[in-house]
UniProtKB/TrEMBL annotation:
Species this protein is from: Blautia argi
Pfam family, one: DUF3502
Protein keywords: Signal
Chain ranges of the DUF3502 domain: 422-488
Protein name per Swiss-Prot or TrEMBL: ABC transporter substrate-binding protein
Length: 491
């Protein structure tokens, strides 16, 4: 019944979504005898695959034997994430393990919708602590550990991801692309040959401005550190020359037909748009092996043009974490399950790659390289390919085409990336809760439209800035600056 009720609410709120609503009767685990199997409901961000139930069954065969638990997988599409999590958590819907995007963390903590994991990590976090060490509790607000990050890259390198075949056809060398402005000439050449194609894919949660990451957002973006966090003065990013130049370029691209008219509203994933032949490129953060991932998701070879050197801000480690919902009926078991997920190679590979012999086969056992079985591809296999967000990517197989040393390379880049001056800092937003709520509403009204070139910045940006002022952005900036100064003083 809960599933049906939530499905109705979601359908009304998001007419375009096709996700499976969370909270089924089988997740209503009760505390009881030690031999009673507890079902953990776990949400993750990603589109539901046709064979998700098959994979879930295989995972549960392992989990029940190992820890006497089962898991109920509940995928939530990227485009529907914010609204769906809001409905689930505010409605007290049965949910155990939840994915937390950093821009939602403050509101979840302030509303006590997720629990403080500090003691649970100390008690049950053997695998997590072994993997993450000092960063196990990095996702905290005022000491309130709301989530656990995943074993993945903790740096950012904003890049343009483009169809390689089209670049070659148009005789464009991607190594000559150094800034986003350089893409204007690239798009002009490609558009001439492909007039019906969108030059840069976008959707309501990943408009170009959100994936062009050059400032340390200090959690929520309302007050940032410029120059990849190398400055220590908190500024209103939306009032900077850099932001104005960016949205002016997006508007120019929109007028030239380089961006789609529904760039700020569609929920279709950017890779799916490329795969369907509707788009040529998109912005994304580069990392070792991203070319292989992009090819798998886009169905064609992709070229990457980095637009910055690798760097790490406050949001990178905490961009996506996993927490435990306050509505969880057995928080100890949920934490035990979460830690188990970080340490079990078989479960991790099932969740990300599917079944051996059905969805993949081992190509190089010595180097843990896998690939599609003969006659198979992503159209007839389970193939999530979202290892970066699934607990511990470093324990997963490596897809053929990637370097056998990809995980070693990633760990090295984690250590060598340029660190923001505020790396490791998280501010306490308790005193500006009302302002953040108001600012979020303002941002929702203006940012996606500006960031996708859907409106004229000459007309709309002044209104955006005026509304941000009214909503209290100066108070948030002052709060961040005061806390940052104290934090820097203690280093």
């Amino acid at each position: 019944m809960k599933r049906k009720i939530l499905a109705v609410v979601l359908a009304a709120a998001m007419a375009t979504t096709c996700l499976t609503a969370c909270g089924s009767g089988k997740s209503e685990g009760k505390k009881g005898s030690s031999d009673e199997t507890y079902t953990v409901t776990m949400a993750y961000v990603g589109d539901k695959k046709e064979d998700t139930e098959r994979i879930e069954k295989k995972i549960n065969e392992i989990m029940k034997k190992d820890i006497n638990m089962e898991i109920d997988l509940e995928p939530i599409s990227w485009g529907a994430y914010a609204e769906t999590m809001k409905l689930i958590l505010s409605g007290g819907e049965k949910m155990d393990i939840v994915p937390i995007l950093v821009d939602q963390a403050n509101s979840m903590v302030n509303a006590k919708q997720v629990i403080d994991l500090s003691e649970y990590l100390d008690k049950y976090g053997k695998n997590i602590n072994a993997l993450l060490g000092d960063t196990a509790k990095a996702a905290n607000i005022g000491g309130y550990v709301y989530g656990v990050t995943t074993g993945r890259e903790w740096f950012c390198q904003s890049s343009a991801i483009m169809r390689k075949d089209i670049l070659e056809e148009c005789q464009i060398d991607p190594s000559t692309i150094k800034t986003y402005q350089d893409l204007t000439d690239v798009f002009a050449k490609v558009k001439e040959k492909y007039p019906d194609m969108t030059m840069m894919a976008s959707n309501n949660s990943t408009t170009p401005d959100t994936k062009y990451e050059m400032v340390d957002t200090l959690t929520d973006g309302f007050g940032v550190l410029m120059n990849q966090g190398q400055e220590t003065t908190v500024e209103n990013y939306y009032a900077t020359d850099e932001y104005r130049e960016f949205v002016e370029t997006m508007y120019d691209w929109q007028q030239k037909g380089y961006l789609s008219k529904d760039a700020a509203t569609t929920t279709e994933g950017v890779e799916n748009q490329v795969k369907a032949g509707a788009a040529f490129s998109y912005f994304a953060p580069n990392k070792p092996g991203y070319d292989t991932r992009a090819e798998l998701l886009c169905g064609t070879e992709m070229a990457i043009a980095p637009l910055s050197e690798p760097w790490a801000g406050t949001a990178q480690i905490s961009f996506l974490t996993y927490g435990i919902s306050s509505s969880c009926t057995d928080k100890d078991k949920a934490m035990q399950c979460l830690d188990y997920m970080y340490g079990n190679k078989d479960v991790l590979n099932l969740l990300n790659w599917g079944e051996e012999g059905v969805d993949y086969e081992v190509k190089d056992e010595e180097n843990n390289i896998i690939g599609y079985p003969e006659g198979k591809d992503d159209t007839n296999t389970y193939h999530l390919a979202e290892g970066w967000q699934l607990f511990n990517q470093f324990e997963m197989y490596i897809w053929e085409g990637d370097s056998p040393d990809i995980w070693k390379e990633t760990k090295v880049m984690n250590e060598s990336a340029l660190k923001s001056k505020a790396f490791g800092f998280t501010y306490d937003s308790t005193g500006v809760t009302n302002e953040l709520a108001a600012l979020s509403n303002v941002k929702a009204q203006y940012a996606a439209a500006l960031g996708s070139g859907s409106v004229n910045p000459d007309e709309v940006l002044p209104k955006f800035l005026e509304e941000l002022e009214k909503a209290g952005i100066d108070k948030v900036i002052q709060t961040k600056q005061e806390q940052l100064d104290k934090w820097l003083g203690r280093k």
